[in-house]
Amino acid sequence: MIQKKICMVGVYGTGKTSLVQRYVQSIFSAKYHSTVGVKVDRKEVNLGATTVTLLLWDVEGRTADHEIPTSYLRGAHAMFFVADGTRRETVDALFDLREHARAAAGDVPSIVALNKNDLQDQWRIGPSDTSKLITAGVHVVRTSAKTGEGVEDSFRWLANATLGEPASPTDQSQVRHAR
Amino acid sequence: MAPDGAPDAAGGDRNSDVSVRELSELRDLLFGGERRQLEELRRRLDTLEMTPEELAEKLPQAIALRSARDDQLAIAMAPTVETAISESVRRNPHEIATAIFPVLGPAIRKAIAETMAGLVNTINRAIDHSLSPRGIRWRIESWRTGVPFAQIVIRHALVYRVEQVFLVHAETGLLLAHVPEETSANADLISGMLTAITDFVNDSFETRQTGELRTFAVGDLTVLVEAGPQAYIAAVVRGQPPESLPVELQSTLETIHLQWSNPLTAFDGDSAPFATARPLLDDCVETVLSTDDVANARGFRRYAWVIPLLLFVVAVEWFGTSGRRRWNAAVARLESEPGITVIRSERSGGRWHLTGMRDPLAANPTALLAGSGIDTTDVHARWEPFVSTEPALVLARARRVLAPPASVTLTVSGDSLIASGRATAAWTARVAAVAPALPGIASVDLSRVEPGLPAEMDSLRGEIEGTRALFAVGSDVLDDAARGTMNAVSDRIRALAEAARRHGYEVTVQLVGRTDPSGSTNENLSLSRRRAVAIRDHLTSRGVPTAMLEPTPTGSGNPLSASGSSDRARINRSVSFVVRTTPLPGARAAERMR
Fold first, then answer.
1. Residues of chain A contacting residue B231, judged by C-beta atoms under 8 Å apart
2. Which residues, 6 or more positions from B152, have their beta carbon under 8 angstroms from its beta carbon?
3. Strand, coil or helix: B374
4. Where would I find the H helices in B337-454?
5. A69–B200 CB contact, under 8 Å
6. Separation of CA B310 from chain center
7. Which of the four, A6, B449, B460, B561, has the lowest number of CB atoms within 10 Å?
8. Which residues of chain B are within 8 Å of residue A1 when distances are taken between CB atoms?
9. How far from each other are the two terminal CA atoms of chain A, in whole angstroms?
């Protein structure tokens, strides 16, 4: 069985938890977030011949006076960053977060989900922001916890990436068509 | 100068040769030891590997040093040693058997002792749980909750049970292996969360300096965590874990670190290589129930050990009495046997002792005892011979002494011996003389014995009486066949006459003439007379004394029987023979003497 540790990281209130809760298997209640600061969920991704079990460490969002504990990030095979597309500062905070994660887990495949894509009228992220992220070596997807858009793609990309096969844009389009 | 120069040059060469040699000697004198050491060091540097000789020198010390430090050497060598032993067993099992023999005996004894202790313990607990108020309370609990009684007992008697064991990759919190299988559904999530919680505690309380989180308890569940550099082991324990458990977990973890060193270092999410570590984890899963409960030792339970003892005593007693019962039955059977009288029967020194009297003609008492299910090797018997006057024995003795022919039946009634059947006069006379002298016989009744002939005469008589001369219808003339038959008969009659003379008998042969039923009675009678006379004349002509022969005409009034009427008619147109013998008075005495 192939298992991979994925850390989900984002600023507080980016909809990170609601983004995944419909798509994962979970046995622990949300109260772990407020107590232990992390909640572990499972997402199985079927990649044809292999099934990868992603163990998602949904880490409590960072606030001004709360840094994400490095021990939760340690050993992660990939990073799942979440930002709120309607709040620009959550995207800006990603660069800091990413450095923090890189210090703890090394240079692992990273994806950024620009969440709340269903709220296009309040969207605050321009193409320049996106390209800045891509330049920093992060895969960018737009997601919506409400419609489910981009969620499965994100997990699939992560699973592939942890197997050392980072999906090219072509791969992404194939995945999208496959849905 | 040249001639001078040459010797000069030669002298110079010699001088330099000398100086080189001297220098070399000087060097040897000054630095000889160092030079040799230098060469040895150079040699060693050139061949950095150890020679087998050097290894042999160092190996025992190296093993001793490492063994003193930890168990790693033993763990590393274990697979090789196991292979070597199984190979040795395969090649020559005798060697190993001889070597371990002294160990086996005590081990088996220990195992049996433990099993017995366990059995007593089980009995104790069963009695305790079935009869005590607590047991009844548990039964009610079982009935109320629908949980089987056995589980209720285990829950209450449980000291501890290691329910699950996780082997977790330390850095990622990913699950490497988990036992038991059936609780594995969410083991990966639990191991992740467990890691998170451990991290949380360690981070929150800065335990790095003082050690890591090793135990936490919720209700009657305790989670023991033993951490290693690359993996940690977590055991979920219900009840009170013993102090030895962390040590056991730690040693399992060390073994895993040693044997799975490469998979642990290279771990990238694939847990397949750790499937083989599950048996090691399985060894940690165990259930320990209370073997003694001091609070309940008072009262009934304290004496529970008496029960198996009582059972044992009852069994021995039952076995003993059943043995005695069987013995008494066997002795009664002996006593009922004619010719055997038991005077004393007792048990002493682990054997049965029998004293009594036995008629030599009585049945074999050992065989009788064996027939009653007695182990006769366990019996010491002494029989005095005596003569029994019980009818069965009297009869047996009479048979043995009198040797009656097969045609005679002997019986005993009261104190008289009764003979019936056919016997020779000689035998009859001997019985009359001897039998009254036998013990238990007062009188002999021979009235039912018909006089028998000596065998020689008896067989001749049989042959003669089995022959008949057949005649044609209405004829009294012997045809050729009848003539041939009668020639043979005449020889036998003469032989019979001769035997009768020797044995002292008077013999007459009746010639019974017959006819078929056709014709008048008078005519038939007349015809039968003529047939009988014809035979007499023929026999007389063959040398048989006329006085022996008695023509006896019967006509058709005394016919021989046959199945068909034509057959019956044929065989009745005949003359047949009846031999009559009468012992001569003087001859009887002569035979009795023989």
1. none
2. B138, B141, B142, B145
3. coil
4. 365-371, 391-402, 425-434
5. yes
6. 30
7. B561
8. 270-272
9. 25
CB B120 within 8 A of CB B308: yes
- What are the E-state strand segments in B327-484? 340-348, 351-358, 379-385, 408-413, 416-424, 443-452, 468-470
B421: left (phi over 0), alpha (psi -120 to 50) or beta: left
Please say whether the beta carbons of B168 and B174 come within 8 A: yes
How far is the C-alpha of A129 from the C-alpha of B519, rounded, in Å? Answer: 158
Q: Which residues contact B333 (CB under 8 A, 6 or more apart)?
A: B368, B371, B372
Residue A170 forms part of a structural domain? no
- Number of alpha carbons in the 13 Å side-chain half-sphere of residue B429: 14
* Beta-carbon contacts of residue B116 (< 8 Å; ≥ 6 apart): none
**Domain enclosing residue A59, as ranges:** 2-162
Nearby residues of B308 by Cβ (< 8 Å), 6 or more positions away: B120, B123
B339 in Cβ contact with B394 (< 8 Å) = no
Is residue A40 included in any domain, yes or no? yes
Residues A67, A96: contact at Cβ < 8 Å?
Answer: no
A74 lies within 8 A of chain B by CB: yes
Q: Please name the helix (run of DSSP H) or strand (run of DSSP E) that holds residue B321, with its range, or none.
A: helix B306-336
Determine the distance in angstroms separating the CA of A145 from the nearest CA of chain B, rounded to an integer: 23
Q: What is the CATH number of the domain that holds A144?
A: 3.40.50.300
Considering the domain boundaries, does residue A179 fall inside one? Answer: no
Count of residues in chain B: 594
- Range B346-351 contact pairs with CB under 8 angstroms and sequence separation of 24 or more: B350/B378, B351/B378, B351/B379, B351/B380
Would you call B173 and A4 a contact, using CB atoms and an 8 Å cutoff? no
| Strands across the sheet containing B408-413 | B408-413, B416-424, B443-452
The complex scores an ipTM of: 0.84
* Euclidean distance between CA atoms B528 and B76, whole angstroms: 124
The reply to whether residue B171 touches residue A74, judged by beta carbons under 8 angstroms, is yes
> From first to last of its 594 residues, what are the pLDDT tens digits of chain B?
444 444 444 455 566 777 888 888 888 888 878 888 888 888 877 766 677 787 888 888 888 888 888 888 888 888 888 888 888 888 877 777 777 766 666 677 667 766 666 666 666 666 656 667 777 787 888 888 887 776 777 667 667 888 899 999 988 999 999 988 877 788 888 898 888 888 888 777 766 555 567 888 877 788 999 888 889 999 998 888 888 888 888 888 888 888 888 899 889 889 899 988 988 898 888 777 665 444 444 455 556 667 777 888 787 777 777 778 888 888 888 888 888 988 888 888 878 888 888 988 888 888 888 888 888 888 888 888 888 888 888 888 888 888 888 778 888 888 888 988 878 777 888 888 888 888 888 888 888 887 777 778 888 888 998 888 999 988 889 888 888 989 999 999 999 999 888 888 889 999 999 998 888 888 999 999 999 999 999 999 999 999 899 999 998 888 888 777 788 888 899 999 999 888 776 544 444 444
Integer Cα distance of B327 and B336 in angstroms: 14
C-alpha B433/C-alpha B231 separation (Å) is 115
> How many structural domains comprise chain A?
1
Is residue A167 one of the residues assigned to a domain?
Answer: no
Residue of B nearest to A51 (CA): B270
A/B interface, count of CB pairs below 8 Å: 72
DSSP B228: -
Q: A125 near A114, Cβ under 8 Å? A: yes
